[in-house]
Specification:
Helix content is about 5%, strand content about 40%. It has about 190 residues and is mainly beta.
Length: about 190
């Protein structure tokens, strides 16, 4: 009985797919991958020029909404927010950030279909508020370079869905020698 139950669960989950919010990856020098199926990823070109990580978000159907280039290169060391047509969004230039490893994330605002938060950690944490209704809308950065926490912060920022299924927990390292953890909840 236990084995047959296990096999049924394994079969059901092996054929299921998660939400498409992470279906697109943008990185490096103009590279992008769209994971439109388990065995059929497709490549696409972007305008991203980054030698660090990037942050992307897609809609729940897997359509790229926008992305933020990672650690920018000289002569322009600031980050930019690009829409799905690979153009800088309105007010999407000069975003503060120095993203190397897991310090740059985008999450949807709870109970909103068009507002997103972009978090970037340098020595301190900043956030940007971005509006993009769907893949055809132009998108705009509503608030830029908002100081979230003034403390010695580091990389390794993560977002985890709250147990209520609506809000988000943001987790990052803070303190001398990155020995402490900092948690805060983004609620509507």
């Amino acid at each position: 009985m236990k084995i047959s139950f296990f096999l049924i669960i394994l079969f059901v989950y092996s054929n299921s797919y998660g939400q498409g919010r992470n279906a697109n990856w943008v990185f490096g020098d103009s590279a992008g991958i769209h994971f439109n199926g388990l065995n059929t990823p497709t490549l696409f070109k972007t305008v991203c020029k980054s030698n660090g990580e990037t942050a992307t978000i897609s809609d729940t159907n897997g359509n790229l909404m926008f992305y933020v280039n990672g650690k920018a290169t000289i002569p322009d060391p600031t980050l930019k927010v690009y829409d799905n047509d690979f153009k800088v969004m309105i007010n999407g230039d000069s975003v503060i950030g120095d993203t190397w490893y897991n310090s740059d994330i985008i999450i949807p605002k709870p109970l909103s279909d068009s507002i997103y938060y972009h978090f970037s950690t340098t020595d301190v944490a900043y956030y940007n508020v971005i509006s993009k209704l769907d893949k055809t809308s132009p998108g705009v950065v509503l608030q830029k370079n908002q100081l979230l926490k003034y403390s010695a912060m580091s990389d390794c920022t993560q977002a985890v869905k709250h147990g209520n299924g609506r809000d988000w927990w943001i987790i990052t390292k803070v303190g001398l020698h990155n020995t402490k953890r900092y948690f805060f909840c983004l609620a509507c």
